[in-house]
Amino acid sequence: MEDSTKQLTPEELHYDAILVDTHNDFVYQMFYRNAKFGKDNPRTQSDLPKFRAGGLDVQVFSDWIPMSKVRNSYSFAVEQIDRLHSLQTDFPDDIEFAKNYDDIMRIVGEGKICGLIGIEGGTAVEGDLDNINRFYDMGVRYIGLTWNNSNSIASSARDEVERGIQGGLTDFGVQVIKRMDEVGMLIDVSHLGEESFWDVIETSKNPIIASHSNVYSINPHYRNLSDEQIKAIAKSGGVIQVSFHETFLGGSTLQKVFDHIDYIKNLVGVDYVGIGSDFDGGINPPSELADVTMYPNLTKKMLEEGYTQDDVRKILGLNFLRVFKQVCG
C-alpha cells in the first residue's frame, strides 16, 4: 500500500486499496451452472479473471442454503465449503482461504485473492450448537441467521412482513448468538426480521455486521435497514455492507449505490459502511457495476463526490477488516 497521505489518481487508489466484498454467490454458480473459477464466464458476474481485473483483494463467498436444501442443510453447507477449499488446491498461486486477520494481510500481501467463507441461512446449524464450532474449524467466519425463510434460530424479514410470522430469536437462537460470540464468529443480520434484529442487538456482546443490506429511508423494502437499526449496528462497532441489487437499491444506477453509502456515512459516520455486492446471487446491478470488473467506477464516484482517500479506503475494505479483526482475531 502507498503512503495514505500521497494523492493518487482514482485508478491508482482503487488498485492500491484493500477491496473487500462481503457477499458473493459464485459457489452457487459453480454448483448450478457449472461455472469455472479460472476462466472468464460470460454468464457470471465474478470469477478469477474478473476478480483480478476489478482489483478485488478479499472475497467472502456466501455458502447459501436455499429452501430446497433445508432438510440436508448441514451436509449441503459442508459440500459447498469443500468446493471452495478445492479452489485453493486448484489455483494455489491465485487464491488462499484465511481464518484470521493476519492470514488476510499475508495473503493480500502475496498478491493472491484472499477467500473467506460465510453461511447464508442458519438452517445449516440444524439445531446443534456444536455445528457452529465445526463450521468455525472449516473456516466459516460469519453466519447469516436466516435467509428469506425463518428457522429454529430466528424469524426472517420476509416472513415477518409478508407472512406475519413473529417471534424474534428463539431460545435456541439466543444460544446460537452466545456460541458465535464465544468462538469468534461474526453475526450477520442481513435478511433478519426486525424483531429478531433487536433480540440480536440485546444478546450479542460483539460488533454486528449486515453483509449485504441497504437503507430503508431511501427505499422502503423489508430487506433494508431502518435508521435505528443502522445506528444500533454502528453503536455495536459493526458495519453495514451495501448491496448492489436493484430491488433493494430502489433503482439501478451507480448514483443509487452511492446514495446508500452516503446516507449511512452521514447518519453514523464513515467507519460503519462497506461493500457487500451480492454478485452472482440473482441480482440486477447497475450497468456501471454490472460485474466485479467495474468496481473502479465506484471508487471514482466516491472521489468525485468529495470523499477523501482515507474515506474510500475505509469503505472499500478497512472498515470490515477492523470488525473482522476484533471478532475473529
Please name the defining characteristics of this protein.
TIM Barrel, 14 helices, globular, 44% helix
Task: Write up this protein.
With 329 residues, this protein is of the alpha/beta class. The chain has a single domain, classed as TIM Barrel, CATH 3.20.20.140. It is built from 14 helices and nine strands. Strands 1, 2, 3, 4, 5 and 6 form a six-stranded parallel beta sheet that branches. Helix 5 links the parallel strand 3 and strand 4. The two termini are 22 Å apart. The model has no long low-confidence stretch (mean pLDDT 96).
Give a quick summary of the entry.
This protein has helices at residues 10-16, 26-32, 48-54, 73-90, 101-109, 130-138, 157-162, 171-183, 194-203, 227-236, 246-249, 254-268, 295-304, 309-328, and strands at residues 20-24, 58-64, 95-97, 113-120, 140-144, 186-188, 209-213, 239-242, 273-275.
